């Protein structure tokens, strides 16, 4: 798909997903690290819990389909080599805190530059210290999650970094399209805070349309309508089950009630009620909503006796909406993902592990693992020989001086 595109990624935790997406789409992606290794190599978890530059599972998960090289960009020789290298690439992806790697380097006229930063490079927060948790909080997502009587819930993974990486891949493709159409080199900039905020799109729209911004709080209902949970504890975790009384969903809720009768948890007379009418009566105050509360309590009891897998099978049989709250172990064992080929074996350190194999599946293009994540400096000599025109003795001398 992008077989004629070359991408140079100045490796940082925030660039890794962007480079990988372009690599998955067929681009020749070179990830450039300092001689001591990129910081992404030091992100856990590690194989068997033992840290090492080649043992980081995050590195291997986000750097497939790339070649890797090392270069000390702070040295004079490193700067000169970078200036030669960059002429052979279509896209540069870099994380920019203060100074771009192109500072002092002549930029090729056809180079698309994709810059990623934490906050705006020029705004009042441009110098703020940050972590992924800070950027997620600045985006607003935690403010809407969790219970009102305790701290907000944060994502268990570096979600802001992932959002920015995905946005940067799209931005780079847009820059390439504009360059090819207008014959003008493009520079695109992705703010991680803004990328993280995109997951709270409704919050942004509400705030700017003059409506009240939602906050975490206790579940609320109208009139005497009882609060109906969305999550239910089961024998081996939690499931989410849609119980709703609007016209578009009430038929599914009636089928849940039918199942609960079979389970012996719900009296048949309640399952036979017009649940939509009963919900409307409760909201108007014409009913105390007790019959709907009985339904919710019956569902909670029935779920506790079933596993997640059993509940999903029941939802298929009775045709209602349910989904398991999956742990990483659940995801690894999920047959649907296995059938779709979303995992592939990869050697990490001295162990073979199942690693993500693609971010999407197309009908006319196959994303596969053409190469695993590169070992430190694995392709340095090859790249310097082909793109920078260096001889073998020159490459050896650079290594001896610590430039590569």
Structure at a glance:
The protein folds into 2 domains: 6-202 and 337-400, Crotonobetainyl-coa:carnitine coa-transferase, domain 1 (Rossmann fold, 3-Layer(aba) Sandwich), CATH 3.40.50; 231-326, no CATH class.
Can you describe this structure?
This protein has 404 residues and is an alpha/beta fold. The protein has two domains: 6-202 and 337-400, Rossmann fold (3-Layer(aba) Sandwich), CATH 3.40.50; 231-326, no CATH class. Helix content is 37%, strand content 14%. It is built from 16 helices and eleven strands. The strands form three sheets. The chain has a six-stranded parallel beta sheet, with helices on both faces. A three-stranded antiparallel beta sheet has the order 7-8-9, covered by helices on one side. Helix 1 links the parallel strand 1 and strand 2 (28-33). Helix 1 (16-24) packs across helix 5 (159-182). The model has no long low-confidence stretch (mean pLDDT 91).
Oligomer: single chain
Largest sheet: 6 strands, parallel
Instruction: Provide the CATH superfamily of the largest domain.
Output: Crotonobetainyl-coa:carnitine coa-transferase, domain 1
Radius of gyration, CA atoms, in whole angstroms = 27 Å
Compute the average pLDDT: 91
Helical stretch count? 16
How many domain regions? 2
- The CATH level-2 architecture of the largest domain is identified as 3-Layer(aba) Sandwich
Strand content: 5-15%
CATH class value of the largest domain: Alpha Beta
Shape, please? elongated
Q: In the CATH scheme, what's the topology name of the largest domain?
A: Rossmann fold
Helix content: 25-40%
Element string (H = helix, E = strand) = EHEHEHEEHHEHHEEHHHHHEHHEEHH
